[in-house]
Amino acid sequence: MARxxxxxxxxxxxxxxxxxxxxxxxxxYRALHADIVSLCLKPGEPLHDRELETRFGVSRTPIxxxxxxxxxxxxxxxxxxxxxxxxxxxxxxLFEAILxxxxxxxxxxxxxxxxxxxxxxxxxxxxxxxxxxxARAQNRPLFHELDTAFHEEISHIAGxxxxxxxxxxxxxxxxxxxxxxxxxxxxxxxxVEEHAAVLAALRQGDxxxxxxxxxxxxxxxxxxxxxxxxxxxDHFIDDDAxxxxxxxxxxxxxxxxxxx
Length: 260
Prior knowledge:
Strand content: 5-15%
Largest sheet: 3 strands, antiparallel
Number of strands: 5
Order of helices and strands: HHEHHEEEHHHHHHHEH
Low-confidence stretches: 1-20
Mean pLDDT: 87
């Protein structure tokens, strides 16, 4: 469908094409963004302009505009003499993103407890049931979608959907990392258990337990990253030569222990 829409744009006159180029660039950007985050395009994979022009049925201009936008988001790397490649996952940026998301979601889960109703928590319960079914079926794309929906719903229950918008801006590298780890043995069932712990605390009205469960669910990724050698090392770029990630992990652990 995306290619058909692109073809219609490409078939217009030059003046019209210039007018709709931003729209074409946006469509290309969204498609490539989704492919990179979902790992359909793997870290380090080359992106060739001509192949993209053929895929989307557009000229080089919107392709380059989309690529530049992805480069600004650190999702592609442009090397003038070598080409354009899907970026590897930057370790330090990933640590920072996890800490930001953890802090924001610990806030939203507390607010959700204060504002939530039985009916709203029932929505989370239904999501949890669907998540369990996806885990049993080993349907990892659906599992990831439902996982994300659970967290988004908590922000809506809290009454602050704008916080989720902010989380969306920082969690791109987290999503790439999470999708790399979903095939690991026991990963899906563990996520289900962690979501269940968050929901149980919400239903019990225990704010500290809800915050603790959410903090554990998201924060344990910090420790896991130290053991990222179990994953393909070519998927990561170690931009943490000064050990900032370790300091962030220690600081986060201390903050959580004092809070709870």
